[in-house]
């Protein structure tokens, strides 16, 4: 019996299951440059693993809000998809595809499998070398190397130096350093640095495109020690951005060659020449697409198929007689299918031959290993005793070099055996979470239902709005449209995610237990951003019991306060009545003022604010609440009980970060752990890189506990404390608030109030006595 079936029996629910999206899942939109016939869409899981879905599965993930039954959800997805989907098919897709992929639970709160791919040719014996924070800092430093003038200069310098070496030096001059142990050791150290610098290239290329690289680690690939960089987030970029990330390592090999060439021309040190020559060989090796080197990912992105090894079995099956229309191949475009089939026909024989030779030679290699290792170890002890430390180190490295293939070969053989056993046991290859079969057999659409925009209209390139691209578009009256720049594309993608559909009214509370952290400013600018880019009614409520200043940040239209609104709430029956108590900014954000009358001696309490929120919920889609600093205040605790999400604001200081972390601790300990996991942390008014404070460590802490963290740069327009709009801010500040709105909107599809189950006593046999 499956986990889902166990859950169904244990928790009977009136009205059937209500599928819900798993916490931490983010919808990233269309996969650019796809090689599939139908569009594919990207989803990021809470563990940062990317999953590639068809449009149908993507719509199910998008609409699974935990409140709608399977019947209602199937109707909603059918309308968005343009073809009919039965509730039984919906349940099957969740059980077979989305549940094992860790994206959707059939029951709200039910556990999911979160399967991970277990590729045969994967890194083993892995460890972390540099954490994500350090990698992102390094990537930010090296990202300018991807400017086109710099790239052309580096390539020209490499070609010029290579021509000079070929026309001036002999091969013996190039490898002269390899004749003595000290030279060999120096070459090995320089090659190790070159390999690490290669990984910086992947991280910098990812960062230049607008994605965030992850950690750099070290492991064993086959029998070769290898570094790796987690650039999974680059899948959200377009094809050019992904190729830049793929080629970043090879490009940084070229940068390393230029630096080494300059040092050689300056010093004449022989090991540098050998390193340059071997770096060229490393570039050639990395471009091979047979195994998971850079060439594999380059070919995958050129073809628009991110997981080439996942298509080996479908391609081979399709080549069998009578299996031309295998479902795993029919989804590929014709040209993509030719490329992938050619790759499979080259790769599979090469890997089988290589694995066969390794297996055949393993006994002889193992026997020789024991003899050679004994000799080397004896040599190490002798050289150390003689004081020849360089030669002893080289002998020790040689011992390690012959030992690693034994470990790698053992891992490959064991993993191969496990794959065979698993395949025999299940009698089929398990589906990868990132792939799925075509859903054409559940459509049933005919006639006019086939005339959808995706199938019948050519996709129009979005016109650019800024820079020379816009000027060219304007001068040519729209005839020349080169499309938006990468920065503009990232902005449009963020705006699209900010416009995530709401399933009901949403209350977002801004918290800070430290005064002067910028909580009111954050509430206001978040409200401006959401109101400008969405079509919803957005209101900001100043719930600071100590005379908040939110109303002073917009042009005041109404003298009314929240107290007036509360006292006359029985007279409000429609939105037009409520509009008399608000002041509206040009962004369409409305603000309700708090009391600033010095004669008032009693502040509003828990019930008062809950009554105001209930009223606002009837007329607004988004309610932002700016609170005071006292989290133990009864009014704020009442607001937290009504909140759907929170935004925690802190200054870029150790005490502010400590107080913010303490706020999350308090929420965890007082029944609001769900608010912590969906919270967004804001580090406000950052100025460059602090001299002492490690902001990356602070950001990593809050990233591990919350849905995300945003740094808001210091902006002179916000220092005045007067009415300020988004147009008054610097572009970097506007981008930061757009990122904040994107993270907040990422939680709109989760519902804090969806019950896990509603038990019917008649079904459990526990009726009233």
Automatic annotation (TrEMBL):
SUPFAM superfamilies documented for this protein: P-loop containing nucleoside triphosphate hydrolases (SSF52540)
Segments forming domain AAA: 511-653
Keywords: Membrane, Transmembrane, Transmembrane helix
GO molecular function, one term: ATP hydrolysis activity
Ranges annotated as spanning the membrane: 150-169, 175-197, 218-235, 255-278, 338-360, 389-418
Biological processes annotated in GO: negative regulation of cell division
Domain of life of the source: Bacteria
GO cellular component, one term: cytoplasmic side of plasma membrane
Pfam families: AAA_31
Keyword Transmembrane: yes
InterPro entries linked: AAA_dom, P-loop_NTPase, ParA/MinD_ATPase
Name this protein carries in UniProt: MinD/ParA family protein
Originating organism: Kribbella capetownensis
């Amino acid at each position: 019996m499956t986990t889902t079936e166990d859950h169904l029996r244990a928790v009977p629910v009136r009205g059937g299951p209500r599928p819900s999206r798993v916490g931490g899942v983010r919808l990233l939109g269309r996969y650019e440059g796809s090689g599939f016939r139908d569009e594919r869409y990207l989803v990021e899981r809470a563990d940062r693993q990317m999953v590639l879905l068809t449009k149908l599965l993507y719509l199910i993930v998008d609409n699974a809000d935990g409140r709608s039954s399977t019947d209602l959800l199937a109707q909603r997805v059918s309308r968005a998809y343009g073809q009919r989907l039965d509730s039984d098919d919906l349940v099957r897709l969740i059980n077979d595809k989305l549940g094992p992929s860790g994206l959707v639970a059939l029951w709200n709160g039910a556990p999911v499998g979160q399967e991970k791919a277990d590729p045969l040719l994967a890194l083993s014996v892995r460890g972390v070398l540099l954490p994500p924070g350090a990698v992102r800092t390094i990537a930010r430093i090296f990202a300018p190397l991807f400017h086109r003038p710099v790239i052309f200069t580096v390539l020209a310098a490499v070609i010029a130096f290579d021509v000079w070496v070929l026309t001036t030096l002999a091969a013996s001059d190039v490898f002269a350093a390899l004749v003595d142990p000290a030279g060999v050791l120096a070459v090995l150290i320089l090659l190790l640095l070159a390999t690490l610098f290669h990984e910086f290239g992947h991280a910098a290329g990812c960062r230049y495109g607008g994605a965030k690289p992850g950690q750099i680690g070290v492991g064993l690939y086959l029998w070769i020690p290898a570094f790796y960089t987690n650039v999974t987030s680059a899948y959200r970029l377009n094809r050019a951005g992904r190729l830049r990330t793929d080629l970043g390592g090879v490009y940084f090999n070229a940068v390393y060659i230029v630096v080494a060439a300059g040092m050689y021309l300056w010093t004449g040190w022989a090991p540098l020449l050998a390193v340059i020559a071997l770096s060229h060989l490393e570039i050639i090796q990395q471009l091979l697409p047979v195994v998971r080197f850079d060439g594999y990912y380059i070919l995958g992105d050129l073809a628009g198929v991110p997981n080439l090894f996942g298509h080996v079995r479908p391609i081979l099956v399709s080549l069998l007689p009578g299996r031309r229309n295998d479902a795993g191949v029919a989804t590929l475009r014709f040209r993509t299918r030719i490329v992938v089939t050619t790759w499979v026909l080259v790769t599979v024989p090469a890997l089988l031959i290589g694995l066969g030779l390794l297996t055949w030679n393993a006994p002889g290699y193992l026997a020789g290993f024991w003899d050679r290792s004994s000799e080397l170890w004896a040599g190490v002890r002798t050289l150390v005793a003689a004081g020849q430390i360089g030669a002893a180190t080289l002998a020790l490295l040689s011992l390690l070099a012959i030992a690693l293939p034994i470990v790698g070969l053992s891992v490959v053989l064991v993993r191969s055996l496990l794959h065979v056993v698993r395949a025999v046991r299940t009698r089929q290859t398990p589906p990868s979470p990132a792939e799925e079969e075509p859903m054409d057999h559940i459509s049933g659409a005919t006639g006019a239902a086939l005339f959808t925009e995706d199938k019948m209209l050519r996709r129009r390139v979005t016109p650019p709005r800024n820079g020379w691209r816009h000027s060219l578009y304007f001068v040519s009256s729209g005839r020349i449209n080169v499309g938006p720049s990468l920065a503009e594309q990232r902005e449009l993608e963020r705006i699209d995610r900010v416009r995530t559909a709401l399933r009901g009214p949403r209350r977002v509370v801004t918290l800070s237990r430290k005064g002067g952290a910028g909580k009111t400013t954050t509430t206001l600018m978040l409200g401006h951003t959401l109101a400008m880019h969405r079509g919803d009614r957005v209101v900001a409520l100043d719930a600071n019991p100590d005379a908040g200043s939110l109303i002073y940040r917009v042009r005041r239209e109404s003298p009314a306060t929240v107290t007036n609104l509360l006292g006359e709430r029985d007279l409000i029956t429609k939105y037009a009545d409520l509009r008399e108590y608000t002041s509206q900014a040009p962004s369409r954000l409305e603000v309700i003022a708090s009391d600033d009358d010095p004669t008032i001696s009693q502040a509003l309490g828990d019930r008062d604010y809950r009554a105001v929120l209930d009223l606002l919920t009837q007329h607004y889609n988004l309610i932002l609440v700016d609170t005071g600093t006292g989290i133990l205040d009864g009014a704020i605790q009442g607001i937290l009980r009504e909140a759907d999400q929170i935004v925690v604001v802190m200054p870029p200081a150790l005490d502010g970060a400590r107080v913010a972390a303490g706020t999350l601790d308090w929420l965890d300990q007082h029944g609001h752990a769900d608010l912590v996991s969906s919270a967004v942390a804001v580090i406000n008014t950052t100025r460059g890189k602090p001299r002492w404070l490690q902001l990356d460590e602070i950001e990593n802490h809050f990233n591990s506990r919350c849905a995300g963290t945003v740094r808001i740069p210091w902006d002179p327009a916000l220092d005045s404390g007067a009415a300020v709009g988004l147009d008054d801010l610097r572009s970097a500040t506007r981008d930061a608030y757009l990122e904040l709105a994107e993270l907040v909107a990422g939680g709109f599809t989760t519902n804090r109030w969806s019950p896990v189950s509603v038990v019917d006593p008649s079904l459990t046999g526990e009726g009233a006595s």
